Amino acid sequence: MRLSRSWIIALKDFKIFLKKKNIIYSILVVPFIVSFLFPVVIVLEGHSNGGSGIPASELPILLPAFSFFYLILAGMIPTAIASYSLIGEKVEKSLEPLLVTPTTDSEILLGKGIAAFLPPIGAILGGATIFMVLMDLVTHGTLGYYFFPNWNAAIILFLMVPLAVVMSVEWNVIVSARVSDVRIAQQIGILLILPFGAIYVAGELNLIQLSSTITLLIIAGILLLVDLLLLYVAKATFQREEILTKWK
Amino acid sequence: MIDTENLTRKFGNLTAVDSLTLHVDDGEVFGFLGPNGAGKTTTVRMLCCLISKTSGNARIGDYDVGIEADSLKIRELIGLVPDNVGLYDDLSAYDNLDFYGKLYDCTAAQRKENIERLLKMLELWEKKDVAAGTFSKGMKQKLSIARALIHDPQILFMDEPTANLDPESSKTVRDFIIELKKEKKTIFLNTHNLDEAQRICDRIGILNTKLMAIGTPEELEKSVQGRKTVIQIEQAGDAIIAALRKLPLRNLIIDGNKLTIDVTNPEKENVTILDTIFRAGGHVQSVTVVGSTLEDAYLKLVRQTK
């Protein structure tokens, strides 16, 4: 495996993405809206509560739940870029010339993975940084300390979010092998947010404790296992023989 | 340079290529003719290590097709012009070629030099910064050829490079292939175009799942039994026609004062035919012997397998 070849492919994809405004918007808009929206919700909720703000006892439960929302974004945002990265090649019929170069299937797959991984991670971490700074600003008066950064946020952002982005990329590779339309691939690809959404709702309903480090590590462990399983399927799907003879 | 021995590819119960055995020499332009679904693209894909073979052997240079370790070496040796151009529409012509140059490990200086040389040869240099998606079909095909040559490969596989091109673009592509021939590149050319094959190729193979025939264009033409004698006479009267009909001719076509007669051995048969015309009072204006064409050979071989 020669990482330099994967990087060449990823850089080519970045160059193409930069020319596609819809891809740029779909990566940047949601994380940044969410990052501003949650602090605004806290401020508005405080005003509606007779101006006394959300009670200090509730914030340590609420804020991790908000942080967990970035995991949902991690399942959602790579869909736009990963589906385009592969289906774009299918539509332009550029996979055959790419496959005939002295590049292995794994190097191409990794290149596509890097191209679909880095922009969403950048956008999510950038948005999360804004979110944490603003949240600290609006909650410091109530809590008396800066809630962020903390270990749980670090686990979510630096362990769970990358694992979720990898999962989304792998899922989209598998989906892209079966369809030839970017929009259909995105619609199927986005189904991946359902389990994350379910965990989020379970947290909101206090069925699981999203503020618990153990809970987060267990979810991260499950994500890792699913990633490994999907990697196996994605690698089996992304074989030149399969691509040229069976991909629709 | 390219060798296959009983090369076979099956897709389930369907045999796409059946026991293909051929040899293409270094510096040769080899034309691969056949109808749609004959297995031409499948053969090229096997030889380019894009899909596996079901059985048989193939070698490109010193490397075996089907051996994983050799497959990367083969792909360094070859260039492919696929039947679909497969360019990145959002990237400029220059960036398309630069990307592939990097994948073939060309240095920055080599890439710059090769891109400029190829784009100038193919009359695309002025458009180097224009997105490939805005190009005409002919320009895209030329860019696809440049892409296949960016690393200066020894062997070039071309899958119907002039299909769907207008006559002017087709000529540019054909002329370019002839230039490559002068550079002693080995070219494996899949085509439907008999005229193109005849003009460009040193040898031709006719494939219809199985290899039906192989040889120079002249050899293939001669392989079809029968030639034609065309006789223009001053007045093709009833007496002449009646006299000719008494001869054991295989086929006589009368078109005004032009007679076309199928002959096997014109040197002998024409003497009898002309003598018969003279005796019937005819005045011969011209006599032409027409050989079988590559088209005749192709159609005969392809129809045999139907």
How is the topology of this model organized?
The complex is a heterodimer of chains A (248) and B (306).
Chain A: H1 3-18, H2 21-48, H3 59-91, H4 95-99, H5 105-143, H6 151-178, H7 182-189, H8 193-204, H9 213-237, H10 240-245
Chain B: E1 2-11, E2 14-24, E3 29-33, H1 40-47, E4 55-60, E5 63-64, H2 68-77, E6 78-81, H3 93-103, H4 108-121, H5 137-148, E7 155-159, H6 167-182, E8 186-191, H7 194-200, E9 203-208, E10 210-215, H8 217-223, E11 227-233, H9 238-245, E12 252-255, E13 258-263, H10 266-279, E14 284-290, H11 294-304
Helix pairs in contact in B: 3-4, 8-11, 9-10
What would you say about this model in short?
The complex is a heterodimer of chains A (248) and B (306). Chain A has 248 residues and is mainly α. Chain A contains 10 helices and no strands.
Rough outline of chain B: elongated
CATH topology title of the largest domain in chain B: Rossmann fold
Q: What is the rounded distance between the termini of chain B?
A: 32 Å
Mean pLDDT of chain A: 88
Shape of chain A: elongated
Compressed to H and E, one letter per element, the order of chain B equals: EEEHEEHEHHHEHEHEEHEHEEHEH
Structural class of chain B: alpha/beta
Percent helix range of chain B: 25-40%
Structural class of chain A: mainly alpha
The total of beta strands of chain A comes to 0
Describe the structure.
The complex is a heterodimer of chains A (248) and B (306). By secondary structure, chain A is mostly helical. Chain A has one domain (3-245). Chain A is built from ten helices and no strands. Chain A is elongated. In chain B, β4 and β5 (63-64) form a beta hairpin. The mean pLDDT of chain B is 90. Chain A binds chain B through residues 5, 8-9, 12, 15-16, 19-20, 92-104, 240-241, 244-245, and chain B through 11, 45, 48-52, 72-73, 75-76, 78, 80, 82, 84-91, 95, 99-100, 102-105, 144, 147-148.
